[in-house]
Request: fold
Amino acid sequence: MQLVVDAYLASAKPVASKEVAEKPEVEWSPSTVRAELAALEAAGLLTHPHTSAGRIPTDSGYRRYVDLLLESGAPPAPTRVELELSRLRREVDEAMRETTAALAQVTDLVAMATAPVPSVAATIHRVEVLRLQPTKVVVIAIASTGDVARRVFEFDRPVDGGLVAWASSYLNESLSGLGVGSRMIAGRLADPELDRIEAGFVATLGAAFTELERETGADLYMDGASRLLSEAHLADLPRADELMTALERRAGVLQMLRSTLDERSVFLWIGGENPQPELRSVSVVGANYGLGHRNLGSVGVVGPLRMDYATAIASVRGAARELSRYFETVYDD
Reply:
């Protein structure tokens, strides 16, 4: 089975029994190979375009192939996803975009990632106030889910550096642990014990926390859609228009990926296994990332049934591992 799928993945042409019999690792006679291929076809794992053609894998055949890959341990990958997330400690949005861009480049497929799933218990984890220029201040607010809101404020006159440092300390002490969207946030920002300058400055910065409420549970990140429409893949995508429509809508794909958050390892949907009807002509390979006690989101690739599954599996595993390490720094800092 594996020899047939490997040969088809490499050539995109139906695999003849003679081709399999001539492989150096095959010790069977041509007649035995023909009988084995016929048995695999009878089992629904292989099919052929017409009577005299060689065999190609069915959806079930790809599933069996992938299951064997996973059973054998971590599949080898000639390339790995290179991420530089240590420099993105406060920029979750940029980290997610960098992940999908790197994953799409490595696999030559559409790469997807979901930001941390929203939580009714999301709280303010950390706040930073930084002066970018004499009259420009940025507020970075991070929720316990890892979601980030970044808001830049422009003032009419230079802002005192001491006021900025005080605001960062005050907001962390006052807001840390409060629920995102909590009415208590407004009360803390309107503290009557603050002097006029402090109160006015903090009130202005309060808009950043409204944005954090909107950002909590940010959507789906995607990169590489144009790769599927290249000559290398287009012949393997009989329903390309439906696929692109589904990817553009995003909501269904996001819901599908978030349905896997209980999975502890790589997950796959091959062809007809896909929950989304528009994706039943392709395969989805993904893995979850998160902290030791819970998953936060998913990262994966979408491509034709005839894809390099070994590289796809290893790549999404690597990307999920890097995102998990990154979010550990977000939570620990």
